[in-house]
């Protein structure tokens, strides 16, 4: 009867209301800044409920969190709300320290299994596992104890051992599938909680080299199943991210190189197999999503500054070249129209909202709520183009890293491939033309909907500008001011530009049009490639300046006669 009660909507609403109360109560009376300002409150709580201090009150809140996680198995809303409160408590410095004193927390950290928390067994709640283990990771790493870390990882170690001993003939079963999905989401949460060299080292030493082969085995057997490959690749994307300089190994340690070799194996295994599979109706979910996560993995590894990539070429190791080759093949397999698909939807959203604003401008407050919470989500739900934003961001981030740190690889490509990449950069810059004028409106909508990652995606043009700046700077340093190109890369670049002499002038023209005629909010980012392109050839700049001035004079001459019979009176400068 009690279990059935948790399935009722009224009970779920009540528990979510209780969680909301706890969240607000914590911010005012339990948080790090509220310890000394709540003495009168706890005096009264001690009289009424026997809760005389923060620790006793936290014990009540944690008991409610544990009860929800044990009893709710199918309500994603309640589970997510509960985990959100749990993470808020654990991530606070003082509240986190207090939590470690509670027996309930010690039990959760030591027994985070499906037997004690049934929601971990539900596939529909598998996304919540990452938040759950992110919180557990916070609590584990608050104590500088490798012994506690290893003991807390025992439940995950058992899953590892079970999957590693599963024969290949049995690896395509549903039991393995769901166990692998859950394990990857759990590991991603633990990896997210590592914010220092010490904590990351604990996870790295625990995983490498003993358990890394399982990742390669999983990606090889389940390439055609995005439900498996996506959490696996996203874990690796988190694992190679050098946030807060957590990936800092000793000068004598080969761990950075070894980690990149594992990254290369994983990307090559996935890329070679996914490219051989036929396309399906849901091309984004089936292929593109995995591809953009692979590009993110490689971009983070290349830009992490913890690998000396010269070692690979020096010792004949193809890990770097193989990873770059397969990543390039994956990007070339995606039509440019799909990479820029988000821009098209962006225009549609802006047009719809601006029409509504113009039609009902007198009802501003009601209109904003209507646009933000009715029309905008409807457009998002009705089009997969919003998902393509992630693809756009990953693609341009990858190209920017290539042009910044591995420009020789780009220059050594054949001319058609080189032109395709540079052409995509120009298309990315031109994407500003369609959204800059309505950027404030879009940022307001994104903020209202808490779509922070989407809002950041509007700035991919800065990545395009950075990539163009690196190409132009390389041309200037090695060709313009040099006597003659001597390196193979410089010779290739000279050949590419000779085959398409309008390449740099067209990009410079696009940049000037954006800066001069659009409400551009990132002029500093765009000014760098403008300078590089200008000093390559002063003649190019002079011709472009004359062309822009001539076009503006024509426009003025067309406008002036319409405004007055005497053009000189209206515009004395003419």
The oligomeric state is single chain
Strand content: under 5%
- Number of DSSP-assigned strands: 0
How many helical elements? 32
Task: Report the C-alpha radius of gyration, rounded.
Answer: 28 Å
Going by helix content, strand content and strand pairing, the class is mainly alpha
Distance between the termini: 88 Å
Query: Major β-sheet, in short?
Result: none
Overall residue-averaged pLDDT value: 85
Give the secondary structure arrangement, pairings included:
Elements: H1 2-5, H2 9-29, H3 39-49, H4 54-71, H5 76-91, H6 93-99, H7 103-110, H8 126-141, H9 146-152, H10 154-164, H11 174-192, H12 197-207, H13 212-221, H14 226-239, H15 255-276, H16 283-303, H17 310-314, H18 319-332, H19 336-339, H20 341-359, H21 364-382, H22 388-405, H23 407-411, H24 415-435, H25 439-448, H26 452-457, H27 460-480, H28 488-499, H29 503-517, H30 523-536, H31 538-563, H32 567-570
What does this protein look like?
It is a single chain. The protein is an all-alpha fold and 574 residues long. Helices cover 75% and strands 0% of the residues. The chain has 32 helices and no strands. It has helices at residues 2-5, 9-29, 39-49, 54-71, 76-91, 93-99, 103-110, 126-141, 146-152, 154-164, 174-192, 197-207, 212-221, 226-239, 255-276, 283-303, 310-314, 319-332, 336-339, 341-359, 364-382, 388-405, 407-411, 415-435, 439-448, 452-457, 460-480, 488-499, 503-517, 523-536, 538-563, 567-570. Helix 20 (341-359) runs antiparallel to helix 21.
Keywords:
single chain, 574 residues, mainly alpha, 32 helices, globular, transport, protein transport, cytoplasm, nucleus, TPR_XPO7/RBP17
């Amino acid at each position: 009867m009690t279990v059935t009660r948790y399935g009722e909507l009224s009970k779920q609403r009540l528990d979510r209301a209780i969680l909301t109360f706890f969240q607000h109560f914590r911010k005012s009376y339990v948080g790090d800044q509220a310890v000394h300002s709540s003495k009168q409150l706890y005096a009264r709580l001690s009289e009424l409920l026997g809760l005389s201090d923060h620790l006793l009150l936290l014990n009540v809140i944690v008991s409610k969190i544990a009860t929800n996680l044990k009893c709710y198995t199918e309500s994603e809303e309640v589970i997510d709300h509960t985990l959100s409160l749990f993470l808020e408590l654990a991530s606070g410095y003082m509240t986190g320290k207090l939590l470690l004193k509670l027996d309930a927390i010690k039990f959760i950290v030591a027994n985070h299994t499906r037997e004690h928390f049934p929601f971990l067994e539900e596939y529909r709640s598998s996304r919540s596992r990452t938040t759950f283990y992110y919180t557990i990771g916070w609590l584990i790493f608050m104590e500088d104890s490798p012994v506690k870390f290893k003991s807390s990882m025992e439940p995950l170690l058992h899953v590892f051992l079970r999957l590693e001993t599963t024969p290949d003939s049995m690896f395509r079963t549903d039991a393995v599938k769901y166990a692998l999905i859950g394990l990857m989401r759990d590991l991603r949460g633990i990896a997210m909680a590592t914010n220092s060299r010490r904590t990351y080292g604990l996870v790295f030493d625990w995983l490498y080299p003993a358990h890394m082969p399982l990742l390669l085995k999983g990606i090889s057997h389940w390439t055609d199943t995005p439900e498996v490959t996506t959490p696996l690749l996203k874990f690796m994307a988190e694992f190679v991210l050098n946030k807060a300089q957590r990936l800092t190994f000793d000068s004598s340690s080969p761990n950075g190189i070894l980690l990149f070799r594992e990254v290369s194996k994983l990307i090559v295994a996935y890329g070679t197999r996914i490219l051989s599979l036929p396309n399906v109706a849901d091309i984004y979910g089936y292929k593109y999503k995995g591809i953009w996560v692979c590009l993110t993995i490689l971009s983070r590894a290349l830009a992490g500054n913890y690998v000396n990539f010269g070692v690979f070429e020096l010792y004949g190791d193809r890990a770097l070249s193989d990873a770059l080759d397969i990543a390039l093949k994956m990007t070339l397999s995606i039509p440019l129209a799909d990479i820029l698909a988000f821009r098209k939807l962006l225009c549609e959203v802006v047009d719809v909202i601006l029409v509504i604003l113009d039609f009902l401008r007198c009802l501003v407050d009601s209109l904003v709520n209507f646009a933000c919470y009715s029309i905008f989500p409807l457009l998002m739900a009705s089009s997969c183009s919003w998902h393509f934003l992630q693809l756009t961001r990953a693609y341009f981030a990858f190209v920017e890293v290539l042009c910044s740190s591995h420009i020789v690889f780009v220059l050594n490509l054949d001319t058609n491939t080189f032109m395709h990449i540079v052409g995509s950069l120009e298309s990315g810059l031109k994407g500003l033309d369609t959204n800059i004028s309505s950027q404030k409106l879009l940022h307001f909508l994104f903020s209202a909907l808490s779509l922070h990652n989407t809002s950041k995606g509007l700035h991919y043009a800065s990545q395009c500008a950075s990539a163009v700046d690196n190409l132009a700077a390389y041309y200037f340093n090695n060709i313009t001011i040099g006597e003659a190109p001597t390196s193979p890369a410089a010779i290739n670049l000279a050949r590419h530009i000779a085959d398409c002499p309008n390449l740099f002038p067209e990009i410079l023209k696009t940049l000037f049009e954006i800066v001069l005629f659009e409400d551009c909010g990132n002029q500093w980012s765009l000014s760098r490639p403008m300078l590089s392109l200008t000093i390559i050839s002063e003649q190019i700049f002079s011709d472009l300046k004359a062309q822009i001035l001539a076009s503006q004079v024509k426009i003025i001459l067309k406008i002036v006669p319409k405004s007055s019979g005497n053009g000189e009176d209206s515009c004395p400068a003419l």
